[in-house]
Design brief:
Alkaline_phosphatase_core_sf; signal; alpha/beta; two-stranded antiparallel ribbon; single chain; binds zinc ion; hydrolase activity; eight-stranded mixed beta sheet; Phosphodiesterase; Alkaline Phosphatase, subunit A; Phosphodiest/P_Trfase
Amino acid sequence: MSRAKQLCVGVAAGGLVGLGSTVATVAVASADTGNSDAGSSSSAVKAGSSTAQPKARTSPQAKAVRTNEALSQPAAASRKTATAGRTTTATSAAELVSLALSTVGSATPGTGHSRRGVVMTASAAAATGNNATVTTQSTTPTHVLVIGIDGTNLSAILSNPDNVNLQALISTGTTAASTMVGHTTMSNPSWTGILTGVWSETAGLFNNVFTPWTYDKWPTIFNQLETYDPGIQTTVIADWENIAQIAGAGSIPADTIKFFPKYNNSWLDTDDLVGQASVDAINNTTAGVSSFNFTYFVGVDDTGHEYDAGSPQYAAALTNVDQNVGEIMAAVNTWNAAHPDEPWTVLVTTDHGQVPWPTIRLGSDMRAHGFQTPWETTTFVIANGPGFEQGAINNTYSNIDITPTVDALFGLTPPSYSAGKPLMDLAGSDYKPVAPGFDAIKQALTDAIAMYGYPNVVTNVALDLRTIVGFVPYFVYTVFNGLTADMSGPLKLPIQFIGALLYQATNIPAQIIARLTGVTGNQIIPPDLWPYTTVPGTQPEPPATAVPTPVAIAV
Ligand SMILES: [Zn+2]
């Protein structure tokens, strides 16, 4: 990371200091629409491709890939959508404003018709997909595991030799240094993208308040698979409540949802519970029955918020996840050896990165991400299993491809509105380092990470503003939800009511600003004004706290 980029990060982070400075920057940005990048001249070159896939230069087969994509996509329109989803959208302030005016004007209950129209189109597309693929569905059971590691920098995986298990998955699979530049780098919006196949702007999200109606419009991968074939066993194991909530939302939720609240006052211990539950789920897989498991670890992200992503604690949290991944892969390998006709496909991804230095602290929490530095927008995808080349790199992958990929692995045609593509369709852009071995892969991925820059200045400032305003209602919600969660008695409802009023007083203006900054799918007035939601699924009994060691007793 060059000093120039750090300065750019400083500018972006400076937006946090106050809205005034951000508005001032907007003014500068508006006057400077000719400039495509906020960064230094060197990063400007990179940012030209920042939307921007290094692969476009490295793959001699790009043309062939496009042909394959054309064949694999159900409609030209969806191809166009997918392309748009991979590029930074805002091109000028004038376009932004005119788009905003055209959409805000209709941001009244009257637009429900057009929104429902979108929903119906989506549903119809999904149904068409189902019908189209029933005849081609394989009778061989399919097993897919997606491992989500929140807030994880690929560079942190690569740089620490202790991460043996993730590095082994990289060495034996196909890996992307991917980017989500131009999209909000917040967890709820981003995991929604990963688990629905549409970017958060389309889904209408920009902060971490769970909105159940989102998934009625944009079915999750669990909804999609369960609708396609209710016989598929879908399992979600997570230690962040939003993931359990997303898994429980929409038409047909996941079959099994296990949510682990913070245990033993340690996110690493909590991640260990997730890892063990995931191992158990793999071991309990039923032969002959297709299964889809999503395992989600929050510990790395939360540690980054507490200590920053450059800290030894962050590295330790990642190594802890790596050990859990090792145990999960041991269970997978045992299964594969016993059932060679039903091997697992394993996909690993993250929702965003984090800046590796201390930032502004609000309470105990640092704002480690949410903006558009390359640290935050660089993500990764590892695909490991039959059909994925060993030791290859494919930087055309994106985390938005996860849901279409899982769809395709189960024989379901992804909905036509999907922003991503099945990774299998991108195989033409695989490339391998000249030298064999992990070190060469590591170097090639590091080179790819270094190519990523900022979005253009208008997009950068717009997304910073979106994140800052979106944080306010989320903060209000968090305070009142925390205050009333364990409360009983006559005061609970009045306090919740005051919280709901304050939340909507900040949320509705934030929704308007989000629309102005390119969030096309949000509802300015939420269909449900009561923001409090429950967490579905089971909350397994945590093990008894460890018995103190003799040394501790002696003390
Ligand atoms: Zn986070």
